[in-house]
Specification:
Elements lengths: L13 H4 L3 H25 L5 E2 L9 E3 L10 E5 L4 H11 L12 E6 L15 H13 L4 E5 L6 H7 L2 H8 L2 E3 L6 E5 L7 E5 L7 E5 L1 E5 L3 E3 L20 H11 E2 L2 E10 L12 E10 L2 H11 L8 H8 L10 E3 L1
Parallel strand pairs: 2-12, 3-15, 4-5, 4-9, 5-6, 9-13, 10-13
Antiparallel strand pairs: 1-2, 3-14, 7-8, 10-11, 13-14
Helix pairs in contact: 3-4, 4-6, 7-9
């Protein structure tokens, strides 16, 4: 056998270069530690859109789409008998304009109330003119895509059509999405009542999220508006949540933190909500409310239908959780 064919054991330096068992263990532990540190760093650097922790609700999941607030009011009320679209534009302009909330290239999800197979005159769904104007404002601010959708209670296709929202939003330039089973995925919300539920993906995967509810009566919670509108982000048997409706609404409002809220109070439902049906139960108020504090917005909306906000349990819970204030000193009328 030649010198080049000698086995490593015949090389006087071979044993010196071969690591000991202790060295192998040390190197292995070091590699595991480095891999763990890299994984932890990756988790810190990667954060899906809207998913953050919050100091006041650190144990819960939060979809936070808010923007940094500037020197603007928390709440603006536009009042006039003019067109609902113009009221909407006035309210958002007084908040600093849509460019304060939407950046060029954003994908924006708009969540109206499209829960019911009702006409605009019956005031069970958001006014389609208000929804369409929010779409136009987003596109004017440079949004790349605007999606309008909701997980309806009644049959979705009829609700989207009869509400007038499908046609109005599409004409304004939005993509209107009907809810479908493949658009939901299970998530752990980690609320006091809500734990694992199917969540509507188009409303949690956008860059910005705008809540556009209607103010109206609700036979269980007394009032429904911005915070209760988040029921439309859930799939599954939502009626089970009615057994503790106020806690479920508070959990949802903790989970969903929108970029902006625009409350339609152009025509409100005073009785027999949330579906209504009788035109005598609705009244024209000619108001649009816009802001960043959903508790304050809903407190104002409750007074419009004659409900004391202190009687609405989820508003009390929302304030206690630090989600907002039932009375706002930063209210501006335009």
């Amino acid at each position: 056998m030649s010198q080049g064919d000698a086995e490593p054991a015949d090389d006087p330096t071979a044993m010196h270069l071969r690591p000991s068992r202790r060295e192998i263990v040390r190197q292995t532990l070091t590699g595991v530690a480095l891999a763990g540190a890299s994984l932890a760093l990756g988790r810190l650097l990667y954060r899906p859109p809207g998913l953050t922790g919050s100091a006041d609700v650190a144990h819960r999941q939060v979809r936070d789409f808010r923007v940094v607030d500037g020197p603007f009011p928390d709440l603006v009320v536009a009042k006039s008998s003019i067109d609902p679209a113009e009221l909407t534009r006035r309210a958002v302009t007084a908040l600093g304009g849509m460019s304060r909330f939407v950046s060029r290239g954003d994908i924006v999800a708009i969540k109206p109330n499209i829960g019911w197979d009702r006409t605009p005159a019956q005031a069970a769904n958001t006014n389609p003119l208000v929804v369409a104007e929010v779409v136009r404002l987003c596109l004017e601010a440079g949004a790349h895509r605007v999606v309008v959708t909701d997980a309806s209670c009644n049959e979705a296709r009829r609700s989207f059509q009869r509400s007038g929202i499908w046609q109005a939003a599409h004409a304004a330039g939005a993509d209107v999405l009907l809810p479908a089973e493949h658009r939901f995925r299970g998530m752990r919300i980690k609320g006091e009542l809500l734990d694992h539920w199917p969540v509507y993906k188009p409303l949690i995967e956008a860059d910005k999220l705008i809540n556009v509810p209607i103010a109206k009566h609700h036979n269980l919670s007394l009032y429904t508006g911005a915070m209760k509108n988040w029921y439309g982000v859930l799939g599954g048997r939502r009626n089970r949540l009615h057994q503790n409706i106020h806690l479920s609404v508070a959990d949802l409002a903790t989970f969903m933190r929108p970029t902006l809220t625009v409350l339609d109070a152009t025509r409100v439902l005073l009785r027999n909500g949330p579906q209504g049906g009788n035109l005598a139960d609705a009244r024209d108020l000619h108001q649009v409310v816009a802001g960043t504090d959903e508790v304050a917005i809903d407190s104002y909306g409750a007074t419009l239908i004659g409900v004391d906000p202190s009687r609405v349990g989820y508003l009390v819970l929302g304030e206690a959780r630090g989600l907002g204030h039932r009375s706002s000193s930063a209210l501006v009328e335009v």
